[in-house]
Amino acid sequence: MEGFQRHYRELKAMNAHVVGVSSDTWATQGAFAREIGADFPLLSDWPSYRTIATFGVEREQGPTAMRATFVFDADGVLRTVIDDQGDMEAHPDGALEAVKAIAGA
User: Fold this and answer.
1) Cα distance between residue 72 and residue 32, in whole Å
2) With 0-12 CB in 10 A as exposed, 13-18 as middle and 19+ as buried, what is 73?
3) Whole-prediction pTM value?
4) What are residue 44's DSSP bridge partners?
5) E-assigned strands of the chain?
6) Are 5 and 96 in contact (CB under 8 A)?
7) pLDDT per residue over 29-76, tens digit each?
8) Which residues pair with 80 in a beta bridge?
């Protein structure tokens, strides 16, 4: 999320919307958002975990999500999925590149 915050102005300039979703509670998400100074919403999927299930990113060992980034175009078509579990910078960097490609930048 910190990487998305670093790229937020550039993403916003290309009319991209950033939303984080986690299985953490609302209180945990709120505290983390304040800690990193998030300019975009961080949402909690707790306690239903429906979003995690819908996107197919639930972990076998419990109600937590694998890290994944989904980039949709303006028509709601899924254009890119980034699911690198080892390199967290791959997510914000890859999303920025995908948005640039969509925008033709």
Assistant:
1) 25
2) middle
3) 0.92
4) 22
5) 20-22, 42-44, 58-59, 62-65, 69-72, 78-82
6) no
7) 999 999 999 999 999 999 999 999 999 999 988 888 999 999 999 999
8) 71
